[in-house]
């Protein structure tokens, strides 16, 4: 989960939501994103990948969450049940043998011949059973049946398959069922949430059912038990990344119209419109005022003004901006989360004291509104305010005493369901009373408290979830206030929001945070319309520095303009902590333009912007980049760019990532100790962006290594003169054979490696110089595993960016990451049996505590490379190197024994090397003598391997073996003449 930019108020169901996108209603910039810290990708202000979603990856279930439902089957999981019911009531399956229409075709790997849902062949608990129809990614799927004429419909069932996490297949979160007379106007029968839930386990199935005799008819305020209609539509929501498999759909009923069958009134899907339900708020701006790093939770008047008013380039207000402000916080000073039911009474008091202090967040909002009102000649203007209600949760046993009767216990397993609910109600009532008292005491001149915001982002999966929400809304309504809610994109039972008494809801698309296609925005709009909600617009400070995130922001604006949200819908706005302020005060024309467009959007005047990305010249070390390139690793890398045909509007912009980290134009990067492949990702953007990936290879050879040795000598990185002289001896010999005799080159490279290790063991070389030169050794020796086929027993969230091959692609910024289980393996196929003696693992923070390394020639019989301690290795953080006696094998396997964190195993690179053989170099190896007979001169090039001066014994003989000269000199390189 992308903890640095988003944090869910509650975790839906433990295992599967590890793959879900991040929530958009709650920000926690004070907690770094795991992926951003460890991989430098998509966290807030750090830019995370899924993940990534930034999501990026997920967050383990919180200890305070309800347990996962591990039921093997949901009600009606047996397909024969519906048939038995039909026989008893003289109903038949009206869908049997019918064809139907998909809104989006199933995936080609699990196709539908047009009758799989109605052929009576029920899928087995096996993902490879051809009866299953598979869908992945994209918008919610709709399947429509034409019954031929109007019939009486009593029951609809849809069967789904789950195999998670083994094969990343989940049942839908929600399934909706509709009927129609004309195929255009649809009446709602029911919304249904999964009862199986999303916990891991063996393959299972679930049947989603509307039974009119049990459920009635949801839409149209009718008391009917049967629906009279010609067309039936089943809609199931899609997980943003994982598979969903469906088989039979049964429509039980009878011909004609029977007693009790009714025509279901049609309802057009629509956004929640601003009005009484929203207390008149059209645009609700989220301001996070909990405990955040760098004071970002403290709202000064100066920070607030560009949020509530549109300021010109001089910072002066010229119009109002957001007409509603939601104050909410996640983290307490102790680091506990108000949204996850972790905080106690003392922390609730802390938040209230902070918010309502004489110079606190609410007073600063009042002063900002007063100042803007005066400048706009509207001194009586009042900003509408919504304030959060923390989640009491269901885990705390010692919340605190609110009424003198003792500390409250919210844990049902300890005090029972009724008492726990009563105690949670007491805590919420205490909060509401405190808010009301403090508000009245402050007597804010330019603020109006209009509502309270329910912080949990879904209806709790526990049995009492709806009761908690309903109890809360009743208490808020007793204060004549509205209840606001912003469920995340995978919120459980979100369609119940009106049923539990909430007044205004804005559904989170979560598209901004990555891992989804742009059609996610249309899907979110459709889901919001289906449930009668508004939508949330999501962005954060990453759009200031990253063109990809800026494009996503523009995608939100474009989508709102095309779906009608901008014109007709209630909107909430997630901005991280400070994006609106930073856009408003920015002197960068392209960022200022985003603030202007946001202002237009809020006022309904924004027009779609989708201009294509311009071209740009990328220059590396003075050379225009036209593709991948190589440079010596002794060079300092410097990258610049210039936009072609820039129109001067300020919209066009270039951003770059080097090895997964943001790169500022012109920044020098020292490549010493960084040989090999580097990934440069350049994004050029206007309204749309174009991203190009280049490979820059920092090349090592004998000359670059010698240059680095000499540079380290100048920097006093050696404590003796012998050390660098000896290393240079090897490098001279390497250069002699470079490009002509690979075996000899390899021999002296390995000798260099042995000498380098000896210098390190003798502490005659600094760690910095040793590490840099060692990287060059590894680069020239070559990773036997690079670009070879890699597989693993699991991949975190089935995410492509975390696939096994990412650990053998040669890039330091990509990685493999496993599922969150100890017994996990990763292996690489070297293609043929090869000799090696070293494995190098570049760990991400999610490393092993213990593991094994195994080898095999047949991928079946495995042997530990470490012979003692049953082969178990204790992992070391960072770049870990494991040496062992040379082995010869085709397959190399990492076998996890125990994880070191709550996450899985993850490493950037997995290297396999053959380093032995360096001791084969003899002490005087490489000596050469050149005779100039005419001049009577002999030059001896004696490269003694220990680097020190040596006695050179010289004997010159003629062709018949007669000794002409015999002498002895002490020198490394000596002119010998007149001897």
From TrEMBL:
Ranges annotated as biased composition (Polar residues): 78-87
Region (Disordered): 25-87
Keyword terms of this UniProt record: Signal
Name of the protein this chain belongs to: F5/8 type C domain-containing protein
PROSITE patterns: FA58C_3
Organism: Paenibacillus albilobatus
SUPFAM superfamilies for the chain: Galactose-binding domain-like
Signal peptide per UniProt: 1-24
Gene3D superfamilies referenced in this protein's UniProt entry, alphabetically: Galactose-binding domain-like
Pfam families: DUF4855, F5_F8_type_C, FIMAH
Domain F5/8 type C: 773-915
InterPro entries named among the record's database cross-references: DUF4855, FA58C, FIMAH_dom, Galactose-bd-like_sf
């Amino acid at each position: 989960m992308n903890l640095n930019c988003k944090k869910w108020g509650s975790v839906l169901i433990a295992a599967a939501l590890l793959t879900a996108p991040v929530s958009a209603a709650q920000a926690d910039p004070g907690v770094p994103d795991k992926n951003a810290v460890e991989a430098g990708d998509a966290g807030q202000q750090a830019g995370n990948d899924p993940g990534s979603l930034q999501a990026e990856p997920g967050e383990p279930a919180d200890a305070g969450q309800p347990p996962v439902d591990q039921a093997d089957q949901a009600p009606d999981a047996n397909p024969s049940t519906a048939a038995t019911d039909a026989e008893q009531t003289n109903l038949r399956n009206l869908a049997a043998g019918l064809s139907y229409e998909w809104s989006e075709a199933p995936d080609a790997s699990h196709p539908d011949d047009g009758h799989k849902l109605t052929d009576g062949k029920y899928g087995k608990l096996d993902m490879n059973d051809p009866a299953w129809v598979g869908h992945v990614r994209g918008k919610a799927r709709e399947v429509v049946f034409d019954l031929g004429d109007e019939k009486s419909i009593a029951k609809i069932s849809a069967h789904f398959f789950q195999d998670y996490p083994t094969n990343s297949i989940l049942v839908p979160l929600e399934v909706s069922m509709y009927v129609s007379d004309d195929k255009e106007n649809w009446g709602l029968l029911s919304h249904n949430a999964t009862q199986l839930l999303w916990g891991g386990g063996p393959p299972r199935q679930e049947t989603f059912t509307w039974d009119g005799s049990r459920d009635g008819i949801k839409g149209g305020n009718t008391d009917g038990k049967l629906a009279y209609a010609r067309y039936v539509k089943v809609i199931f929501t899609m997980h943003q990344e994982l598979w969903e498999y469906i088989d039979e759909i049964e429509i039980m009923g009878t011909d004609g119209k029977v007693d009790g069958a009714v025509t279901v009134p049609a309802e057009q899907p629509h956004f929640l419109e601003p009005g009484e339900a929203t207390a008149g708020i059209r645009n609700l701006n989220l301001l996070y005022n909990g405990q955040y790093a760098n004071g970002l939770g403290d709202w000064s008047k100066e920070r607030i003004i560009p949020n509530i008013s549109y300021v010109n380039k001089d910072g002066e207000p010229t119009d109002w901006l957001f007409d509603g402000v939601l104050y909410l916080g996640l983290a307490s000073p102790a680091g506990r989360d108000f949204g996850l039911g972790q905080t106690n009474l003392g922390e609730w008091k802390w938040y209230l004291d902070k918010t309502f202090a004489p110079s606190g967040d609410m007073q600063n909002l009042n002063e900002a509104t007063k100042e803007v009102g005066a400048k706009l000649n509207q001194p009586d203007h009042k900003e509408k305010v919504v304030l959060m209600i923390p989640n009491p949760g269901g885990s705390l046993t010692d919340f605190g005493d609110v009424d003198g009767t003792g500390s409250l216990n919210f844990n049902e397993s300890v005090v029972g369901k009724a008492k726990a609910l009563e105690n949670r109600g007491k805590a919420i009532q205490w909060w509401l009373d405190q808010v009301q008292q403090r508000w009245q005491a402050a007597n804010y001149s330019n603020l109006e408290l209009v509502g309270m915001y329910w912080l949990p982002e879904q209806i709790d999966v526990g049995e009492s979830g709806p009761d908690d929400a309903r109890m809360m809304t009743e208490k808020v309504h007793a204060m004549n206030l509205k209840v606001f809610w912003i469920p995340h994109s995978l919120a459980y039972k979100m369609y119940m929001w009106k049923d539990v008494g909430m007044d205004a809801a804005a559904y989170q698309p979560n598209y901004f945070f990555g891992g989804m296609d742009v059609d996610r925005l249309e899907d979110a709009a459709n889901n919001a319309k289906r449930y009668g909600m508004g939508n949330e617009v999501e962005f954060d400070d990453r759009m200031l520095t990253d063109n990809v995130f800026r494009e996503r922001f523009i995608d939100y604006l474009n989508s709102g303009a095309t779906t009608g949200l901008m014109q007709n819908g209630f909107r909430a706005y997630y901005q991280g902590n400070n994006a609106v302020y930073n856009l408003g005060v920015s002197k960068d024309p392209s960022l200022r333009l985003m603030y202007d467009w946001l202002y237009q959007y809020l006022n309904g005047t924004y027009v779609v912007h989708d201009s294509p990305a311009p071209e740009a010249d990328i220059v590396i070390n003075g050379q225009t980049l036209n593709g991948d390139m190589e440079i010596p690793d002794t060079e300092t890398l410097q990258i610049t760019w210039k936009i072609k045909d820039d129109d001067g509007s300020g919209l066009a912009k270039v951003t770059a990532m080097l090895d997964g980290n943001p790169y500022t134009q012109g920044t020098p990067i020292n490549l010493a100790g960084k040989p090999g492949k580097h990934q440069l990702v350049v994004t050029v953007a206007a309204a749309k962006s174009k991203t190009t990936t280049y490979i820059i290879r920092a090349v090592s050879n004998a000359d670059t290594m010698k240059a680095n040795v000499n540079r380290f000598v100048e920097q006093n990185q050696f404590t003796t003169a012998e050390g660098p002289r000896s290393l240079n001896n090897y490098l001279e010999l390497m250069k002699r054979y470079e490009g002509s005799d690979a075996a000899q080159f390899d021999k002296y490279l390995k000798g260099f490696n042995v000498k380098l290790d000896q210098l390190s063991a003798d502490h005659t070389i600094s760690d910095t110089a040793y590490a840099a030169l060692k990287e060059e050794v590894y680069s020239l020796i070559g990773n036997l595993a690079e670009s070879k086929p890699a597989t693993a027993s699991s991949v975190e969230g089935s995410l492509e960016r975390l696939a096994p091959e990412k650990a053998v692609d040669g890039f330091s910024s990509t990685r493999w990451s496993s599922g969150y289980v100890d017994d996990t393996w990763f292996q690489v196929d070297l293609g043929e049996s090869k000799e090696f003696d070293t494995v190098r693992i570049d760990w991400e923070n999610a490393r092993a505590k213990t593991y094994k390394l195994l080898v095999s020639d047949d991928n079946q019989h495995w042997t530990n490379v470490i012979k003692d301690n049953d082969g178990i290795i204790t992992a070391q953080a960072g770049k870990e190197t494991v040496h062992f006696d040379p082995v010869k094998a085709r397959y190399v396997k990492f076998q996890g024994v125990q994880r070191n964190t709550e996450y899985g195993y993850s490493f950037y690179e997995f290297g396999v090397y053959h380093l032995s053989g360096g001791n084969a170099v003899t002490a005087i190896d490489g000596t050469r003598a050149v005779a100039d007979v005419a001049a009577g001169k002999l030059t001896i090039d004696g490269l003694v391997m220990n680097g020190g001066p040596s006695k050179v014994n010289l004997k010159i003989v003629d062709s018949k073996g007669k000794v002409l000269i015999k002498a002895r000199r002490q020198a490394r390189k000596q002119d010998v003449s007149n001897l």
